[in-house]
Amino acid sequence: MNKIDLLLKLDKKKLVRPTQEVEIKRLSNILGETFVVICQAITADEMKELTNTKTPNEDMVIMGIKDPMLTNQNVIEHFGAVTALEAVQTIFLPGEIALLAGIITDLSGFGKDAVNEIKNL
Question: What is the pTM of this model?
Answer without folding.
Answer: 0.89
